[in-house]
């Protein structure tokens, strides 16, 4: 057996133990609060259920996000976190309108579509135009400027599920930059195959961005079955004929609106130690109720901080950031970095990849903190988590402050195999959360926070090497 096979075997042996409560007490090496979190954490589920039920969908900048902030303050206060507060900021806000797509010829039928964030509008009357097909984003990039005048570009791709979510990095750009490129080529509109991995008639929304000076064109995502159907329609269309689509998307920009970060703390006993910043995002897309993205993250990090708080008085302060508006442009993370730029921070962590089990831990720590990473690795191995070799630094919301201050980081990588079945769809709802895997997340975070918040060594990273 290779080492990686042994690790997999150990992980699956533990996975079996996880599903058999009788085995839970056979892990004496784990500190008490980790065992408690693993056995019956009540907090994470309560937060996710509360947010998705009492607030529901909560897009950044809307009144629903304001209700979510109020809910968050009440919940964190009830849980007796310290310094619970809202830090508001203004952000440009885009809201969805009507949305429909249909093939007019040669095979008339409806398709399931949703607008991408920042999409332009077709106007009430909608838009009728010929489809030009691109199997990949690279194919779209290759056509000359101006060549798509009056056409609807259709960009497909072959995103498949990956445990580490890397396929989103590979195929997500069809959404992130495809519309901007199509606009520059002169297209009247664009539809993409959703950046997702399910085979349901649920299109996946998500933000797109247009370059300065480029007028936003209508930009929609088709569900995967509809994108595949459109490919077949294109293949079966007789030579010399075109495929004509009618697209109606009527989103609006409603200008600058108030959004806000919700911040709270577990106070450390040593005020000289800079705080650990742990984050999730409070906002969600508007199609589902934001259970996996990112109610789960808020549930996980908060439950873990709660277990640490109940068990001990940590030396280092743990600061929780429930960021206000990640999906629509990381406005919360940017506002946090501006407001707190002169305060020292020790390290950042974030949970924003669903609620399936943590399978890998990565570190970005100074050399001097080797004993810290070794003890965390040992604790996590009890939970079936392997040590990775990547440099940590995940998390959109902590990204701006992490980059500005060159902060240390720890990533608890979750299994992303089914994440993009649900991501940004109407299917992102509470019933998709697996309680056993959720508790494993809380246990892993509790283990890391216990070690981190009681570590008194310096966590300052050496200055970044300047590129020649
Ligand atoms: Zn998210």
Gross geometry: elongated
The helix-and-strand class reads alpha/beta
DSSP strand tally = 16
Return the average pLDDT rounded to an integer: 94
Strand composition percent: 15-25%
Using only C-alpha atoms, the radius of gyration works out to 23 Å
- Low-pLDDT ranges: 1-27
Individual helix count: 15
Bin the helical content.
Answer: 25-40%
Ligands bound to this protein structure? zinc ion
Report the span from N to C terminus.
43 Å
Spatial order of the strands in the main sheet? 1-10-12-11-13-16-14-15
Q: What characterizes the major β-sheet?
A: 8 strands, mixed
Please give a quick description of this structure:
This protein is α/β, with parallel strands linked by helices and 468 residues long. The chain has 15 helices and 16 strands.
Give a written overview of the molecule.
This protein is of the alpha/beta class. The chain is built from 15 helices and 16 strands. The protein has an eight-stranded mixed beta sheet, with helices on both faces. Strands 3-2-9-5-6-7-8-4 form an eight-stranded mixed beta sheet, sandwiched between helices. Strand 11 (276-281), helix 10 (291-311) and strand 12 (318-323) form a beta-alpha-beta unit. The longest helix has 21 residues, at 291-311. The two termini are 43 Å apart. It binds zinc ion. Zinc ion (ZN) is lined by residues 281, 293-294, 326, 352.
